[in-house]
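Pasting two entries for a bug report.
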Amino acid sequence: MGVALRPLLAEYKESPGWEGLGGIAAIDAFNALYQFLSGIRQADGAPLMDNEGRTTSHLSGLLFRNANLIEKNITPIYVFDGKPPVFKASTLAKRREVRENAADSWEKALKEGDEESARKFAMASSKVDAYIIDSAKELLSALGIAWIQAPEEGEAQSSYMALNGDVTYAVSQDYDSLLFGAPDLVRNITISGKKRIRGKVFSIYPERLRLEAVLSGMRVTREELVQIALLIGTDYNSGVPGVGPKTAVKIVAEGKFYDRIDESENAADPNQLIRYFLDPPVERSYRIESRSPDPELVIDLLCGKHGFTKERVEAGLERLGAKKGQATLDAWF
């Protein structure tokens, strides 16, 4: 879900086009997997599944979305979340409740024959569980696409890698990466080019946000941007009741952050949260390796284990292999 900074960031969004995004992309894996699970579904909302009832929507998404990225000279690296920080427990509990309620509503809509509502509730019930994570890592390894395990938040790890110059930019739909210090954040590259909202179809294009431009334009430091986020509310705190983005900016500008943050219902120490965003736990000894796909392994995994058609998988592999030599990590250093 992330932090609701959208209204403050609209004027700083760039539209680079695909041609402006060549390089190494550190992708928030959980974010991407959730998008695949939500978007790649049947008409009634059911995910794609193999003969044993195992979900395969995310595997299809990983194969073909990565082929699309590599054809555009983008080298993807997936960063997986580790153990969530203790002050995220409340948010995770709320998300779990939302998913469970959505699953109940999905079942009810199916019984009533309401296919449109069924799909909407099914998307909201999507869950990234241990099977999804393990099978995603297995496929990425077979495809030769690097992945890294973060100790805690994947966005923090991706941001550190971008800040360290080891990747070109961080990729996530959420804006938290800016709070974690990502110099460049790119959105909308792991979702399809179309999105349906309230029955209408909209085209989706890549967006780029540069932290330096945001801080300079808003005339704030990164710590002050974190303070603004905490006043609004993040995954780690509930924010101050009645305080929206514009009011939060005014409060911080007037130096009244600590006066107002005490009104938050969240018990987390604001100084602890600020330190978490500014210096989060990350893996510093990571190794990034990009290899060519192993076609036999990919076919065995997707076709033999999960029932994908061989022709479809070979088509994806051909796209991956055709550009793989042009998208190795060495090309960007």
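Entry 2 (this is the one that rendered wrong in the viewer):
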Amino acid sequence: MPSSSLLCLASFAALLLLSACATAPDRRDPLEPFNREMFQFNQDFDEKIARPLAELYRDTVPLQVRKGVRNFFANLGDVIVFVNDALQMKWHEALNDAGRVMVNTTLGLGGLRDVASELGVEKRNEDFGQTLGYWGLPAGPYLVLPILGPSTFPRDTAGLVGDFYAWPVSHMEDAAVARGLGVLRFLQARSDLLGTESVLEQAALDRYVFVRDAYLQRRESLIRDGRSPTLEEEE
């Protein structure tokens, strides 16, 4: 067989191998066909609606104002962190996060400035999904939610419900203001991610698999507070 034919055959075999690796079934993702459809829906929504709005927000709102908005919502998020610290009986961390809320709400002018971080009070990450995992609820299958993106069912999906009710804005009497703050929070969060798309495109052979694996690994790391799983847990 000519060398050129051998080269073509080797290249074709390599492509088949890469394709098989990219589409191999994952026991964590039994809903993959549905999830891929929802992933594509979210990609289309982001491309046509979310990203253009986030770019408009970035280009029209001054940097210092956006920084204040980011700090304001981060301060409200620390309330959720504090609640979940308490539910996980992490009393030292609960005091840390309660201190952050008090300092930023008072000295930080309602949270517009992150004075706590300037004073060396660490910002942490806890949510109801992590709390459910802390108390032993399995993650369950991977699930892509519309607009909200990666999750698991039942653990992280149920956690989103808990986070919603712990979110202070959810209890505002003026529904219009609450919705407006929700939209502003979304725009700020999406604008903070502008520019990261190229990293994903360069790093991922299959964007869906890349996002899924990154999400699941990060969630388990958060639940374990960065500790490695034991051999029994891995099995």
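Dev reply: Rendering is fixed now. As a check, the viewer should reflect this: The beta strands are 142-145, 149-152.
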